[in-house]
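Private note to self, pasted from the team thread so I don't lose it. Backbone tokens:
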């Protein structure tokens, strides 16, 4: 019985030490997630929802990525230019349906118009102003 009384406190002490170590590891992982989330939040996001780019005007500093997310269940594109004068050599990306994403980074200052080449309509047009 005496041995049992000596072993139990030792086991409890070891369990406390392991739990304390696990706690600091968990905090580090949580901090890393927060940092990644903060970095992702810094990039403006344009969503595609019910055949509309929202927002349809974004201003960024050169080198900043613009994050596009397609919430519709069908394909959309982010194609440079305007419908009557597309410039797909500048950028042209197809988002293949629900929850597809695309990051666009522009390094030259200027105004970049874009549209969805699959769906005409004023909601499927936008612009990015790079300074």
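Design output:
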């Amino acid at each position: 019985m005496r041995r049992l009384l000596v072993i139990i406190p030792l086991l409890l002490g070891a369990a406390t030490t392991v739990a304390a170590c696990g706690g600091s590891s968990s905090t580090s992982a949580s901090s890393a997630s927060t940092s990644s989330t903060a970095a992702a939040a810094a990039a403006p996001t344009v969503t595609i929802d019910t055949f509309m780019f929202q927002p349809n005007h974004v201003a960024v500093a050169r080198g900043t990525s613009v994050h596009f997310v397609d919430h519709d269940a069908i394909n959309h594109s982010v194609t440079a230019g305007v419908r009557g004068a597309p410039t797909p050599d500048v950028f042209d990306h197809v988002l293949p349906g629900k929850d597809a994403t695309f990051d666009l980074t522009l390094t030259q200052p200027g105004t970049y118009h874009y549209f969805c080449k699959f769906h005409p309509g004023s909601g499927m047009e936008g612009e990015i102003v790079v300074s």
